[in-house]
Amino acid sequence: MNWYLKVLKNYVNFQGRARRKEYWMFTLFNVIFSIVLTIVESLADISPFLTSIYSLFIILPSLAVTVRRLHDTGRSGWWVLIGLIPLIGSIVILVFTCLDSDVEENRFGKNPKVV
Fold this sequence. Notes:
By secondary structure, the protein is mainly α. It is built from four helices and no strands.
């Protein structure tokens, strides 16, 4: 949960690097919250209002942590736009976010594993 809150506190920071653990823990909690909200909405027989609000709330922090994750692998944050290409773009982003960090300091900052 600390990783999730760290990303939310850092929601407008597109500078620096984010570890794999930070990115994937944030993604895991997003999926869990989305599933819980969907279940609550279906049990209460209401429209997907809560899920829509949560999605709008979380879009900027998700984008920021993805850009920082790409920075950690030595890529520009502009690579996130490849996700707009159907299927292929999502696969490329998935592969990039699964890659290990650059061991040394890169143009985006020091390795967050070492710091």
